[in-house]
Task: inverse folding
């Protein structure tokens, strides 16, 4: 338990450091076999990159460090409950456990409101605020057929 708390304290320290640098108040560390393999902090405003959340930054670093896109055996400690984008990235990376500090309500209370995304995902496509329409499916399926037929592909 103490080790988990120390990793969370590091994520919180990264969030504090990010605020000092002009980034958002979020930090994350990824741990494997009891060792930190990557750290990340929110750099959305610093990099002008809406995907530069702490968790995504840490995932990118861990993948580079470990030389893999699948972070099996890893745990992420994040200073705040992951937003939908980060949660999706965590699932795609195959991280096996999440510990978080602040809740998404805590984040909403200081102006980081992700709840609308959760609500949008529950709506049928035609009822979402952002128009989403299918186009050229038959042509697009060609790429899928070529992928399916490829014998030397790396599956994920």
Result:
């Amino acid at each position: 338990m103490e080790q988990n708390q120390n990793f969370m304290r590091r994520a919180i320290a990264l969030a504090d450091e990010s605020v000092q640098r002009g980034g958002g108040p979020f930090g994350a560390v990824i741990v494997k076999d009891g060792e930190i393999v990557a750290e990340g902090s929110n750099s959305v405003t610093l990099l002008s990159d809406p995907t530069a959340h702490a968790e995504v930054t840490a995932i990118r670093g861990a993948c580079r460090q470990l030389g893999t896109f699948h972070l099996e055996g890893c745990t992420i400690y994040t200073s705040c409950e992951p937003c939908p984008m980060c949660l999706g990235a965590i699932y795609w990376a195959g991280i096996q456990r999440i510990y978080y500090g602040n809740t998404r309500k805590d984040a909403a209370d200081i102006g980081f409101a992700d709840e609308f995304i959760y609500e949008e995902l529950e709506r049928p496509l035609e009822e979402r605020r952002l128009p989403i329409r299918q186009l050229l499916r038959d042509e697009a399926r060609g790429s899928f057929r070529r992928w399916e037929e490829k014998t030397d592909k790396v599956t994920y």
Remarks:
- The mean pLDDT is 96.
- The first strand starts at residue 27 and ends at 32.
- DSSP finds seven helices and four strands in the chain.
- Helices lie at 2-21, 44-47, 54-66, 84-93, 104-109, 115-122, 137-149.
